Amino acid sequence: MCDYVGGMVPFAKTKARRLVTGDPRLSLEERYGTHGGYVTAVKNAADNAACKDYLNAGTLAGKMGAKCTKELAPGVADDWVQVVQQAIDSNVLCVTLGTDGKCKDPAN
């Protein structure tokens, strides 16, 4: 049995922290720059998945900028919106968190 079933090691937030810990993987800051950069990367990945029919993107996704949308049957979740909204609300590289715990950076 593998000792790390379900385990993960998070990325360092900054390059300085990555260098201190000796982690060879790029930090979140090096990957995305800002919270807005992270959200953009998530949107691009969600677009890629939706365009290949791995993720549902409906009317609301289109209003939020999704590239490949289609009419969804009643009751079918707009997965693109859920994934992107989760990224927008996350604290990944967020400078200002609101009292609700969601990111309030102006880029969003």
Structure, described:
This protein has helices spanning 15-21, 28-32, 35-51, 59-63, 79-89. With 108 residues, it is mostly helical. It has a domain at 35-89. The model has no long low-confidence stretch (mean pLDDT 91).
Keywords:
mainly alpha; 108 residues; 5 helices
How would you briefly describe this protein structure?
The protein has 5 helices and no strands. The chain has helices spanning about 15-20, 30, 35-50, 60-65, 80-90.
* Whole-number mean pLDDT: 91
Helix content: 40-55%
How many strands, what sense, and barrel or not for the largest sheet?
Answer: none
Number of E-type strands: 0
Tell me the series of helices and strands, N- to C-terminal. Answer: HHHHH
Number of helices: 5
Shape: globular
Q: How would you summarize the topology of this molecule?
A:
Layout: H1 15-21, H2 28-32, H3 35-51, H4 59-63, H5 79-89
